[in-house]
Amino acid sequence: MQTYLTHPEARDDSVVRGRRCRCEACSLSVHVIDTPAPTVCPYCQRLLSHEATAIQVAPEFPVPSAQEVGERLDKLYSRPPKLLVLAISFVAMFMLGWAVFLQLRSAENYWYQPMVSIYSLLAGLFVVSRFIIAAFYVPPKETGYTPTVTVLVPCMNEGAVIRQTIERIFSAGYPADKLEVVCVNDGSTDDTLTHMLAAQSRHHRLVVVDFERNRGLCHGWGVATLIARGEFMVCVDSDTFIFPGSLQKLMQGFADATRRSAAFQATATSRTPASTC
Question: How far is CA 9 from the centre of its chain?
């Protein structure tokens, strides 16, 4: 259990002082250090009780460097030999041409079941169009656009990975004065809250929201959204590790004020090998 120290005369560089803002009616607490402390509950709008706190500075958590991440990406996404690419492309074009040929030969059969035939034709065109559009994709240019960003991370019983998730976010290379992280502990029964507060002792722009009882993921996203102060909000799963440069690259899609709508696939890795986003 986290220990709270309330002796103002104690001065120790190994101790970080902050505030715990609690709503007894909603059974939730908000832990802050450098971030302005909220005055009212984000749910019921009642005044929060404030308590001065102090936590021991946690040991530094090891995080892979940008070079190590780059080497890993090179291994995961290394390009195959050009001859192999040409061979695969040739086979794919041959199969596509053969499929078109067979469809043309049986064109008269389309009239027997026109709805099914039209659906299959449209579905095929849609799949092919995805590959054609992807071939002409141009990533957004680096413009130096760095708005304030709040990363939202709700979780429950993720003590094994939540510390690394937080550390990866803060080590992603985004300007520290423009980055805020809001983590929500959704009534965890393990040491998730302890790891969150340990990360907060080293990253003072981290806001920790503690639900004393489980409320569900929707409430976790909701309270994090209400507390967030950034111009943009980035939603991250609690077991997803962001690679360096991901946040910076994401924001470039919003640099043009005339089109502030963008879709982005961040480069990240998860503890579950089949789950990447």
Answer: 40
Q: Indicate whether 6 pLDDT > 70.
A: no
Of 14-23, 134-143, 239-248, the least confident:
134-143
Is the model's pTM score more than 0.90? no
Q: In terms of CATH, what superfamily is 15-58+142-270?
A: Spore Coat Polysaccharide Biosynthesis Protein SpsA; Chain A (3.90.550.10)
Q: Which helix (H) or strand (E) holds 20?
A: strand 15-23
Calculate ∠ Cα 151-238-144, nearest 5°. 30
pLDDT in tens, 251-272: 988 887 766 554 444 434 333 3
DSSP 189: S
Long-range contacts of 121-130 (CB under 8 A, 24+ apart): 128/96
Question: Which ranges of 19-177 would DSSP assign to H, the alpha helix?
Answer: 66-76, 82-105, 114-135, 162-170
User: Do residues 195 and 160 touch, judged by C-beta distance below 8 A?
Assistant: no
Distance CA 224, CA 233 (A): 10
The per-residue pLDDT for range 83-100, each reduced to its tens digit, is 887 888 888 888 877 877
On whether the CB atoms of residues 211 and 187 are closer than 8 A, the answer is yes
| DSSP single-letter state for residue 156 | S
List the domain boundaries for the chain. 15-58+142-270, 84-135
